[in-house]
From TrEMBL:
PANTHER family: DEOXYCYTIDYLATE DEAMINASE, DEOXYCYTIDYLATE DEAMINASE-RELATED. Coiled coil: none annotated. Keywords: Hydrolase, Metal-binding, Zinc. It comes from Aeribacillus pallidus. GO terms for cellular component: cytoplasm. Its cofactor is Zn(2+). Residues 5-132 form the CMP/dCMP-type deaminase domain. This is ComE operon protein 2.
Length: 186
């Protein structure tokens, strides 16, 4: 039995949270962890009770949607709201944090940042993390990571496509299906 790693477990939680995002521009999730326990989570969305970008469209100023609170910020604020210490904690995020979140993460005493996707990684954010001695690590993670049968499904589809090829379906169809399989299985 393959046991999921801690990194993948917490990163999966962040990706699950990202599915709750209400902003159409980018879906981000963040999970704060201390001593291998999840202490808070957040996704990018409006303030509680506010209208949602997915219903009303984004409120864009200077090419940024200003309606939403970022996932990292929401997770940190959840700790503030309920009085949970963040000093020495770790944060797992789907995307590399923006400058404002970088500063909040450092100031909250979070010691490690694990992220899945590079996203406009700002050199100043890197510099601030380094100065603060925050550990930064990219964790390889995508939708296929949690599909434990991904490889079996890929092989199955490959067999079907080969059978279709021998049955003489058109090259155009084959090419299209092969491309779809490639996108599905990574
Ligand atoms: Zn928005
Ligand atoms: Zn941010």
């Amino acid at each position: 039995m393959d046991r999921i790693s801690w990194n993948h477990y917490f990163m999966a939680q962040s990706h699950l949270l990202a599915l709750r995002s209400t902003c159409t521009r980018l879906a981000v999730g963040a999970t704060i962890v201390r001593d291998k326990r999840i202490i808070a989570g957040g996704y990018n969305g409006s303030i509680a009770g506010g209208v949602h970008c997915i219903d009303e469209g984004c409120y864009v100023i200077d090419n940024h949607c200003v309606r939403t609170i970022h996932a990292e910020m929401n997770a940190i604020l959840q700790c503030a709201k309920f009085g949970v210490a963040t000093a020495g904690a770790e944060i797992y995020v789907t995307h590399f944090p923006c400058l404002a979140c970088t500063k909040a993460i450092i100031q909250a005493g979070i010691q490690s940042v694990y992220y899945a996707k590079d996203y406009k990684n700002h050199p100043y954010a890197m510099e601030l993390f380094e100065q603060a001695g925050v550990h930064i690590e990219k964790v390889a993670f995508d939708e296929t990571t949690l599909d434990l049968k991904n490889e079996e499904k890929r092989e199955y589809v490959e067999q079907l496509l080969n059978a279709l090829k021998h049955l003489g379906v058109s090259e155009t169809d084959l090419k299209k299906w092969n491309e779809q399989a490639r996108q599905l299985f990574g």
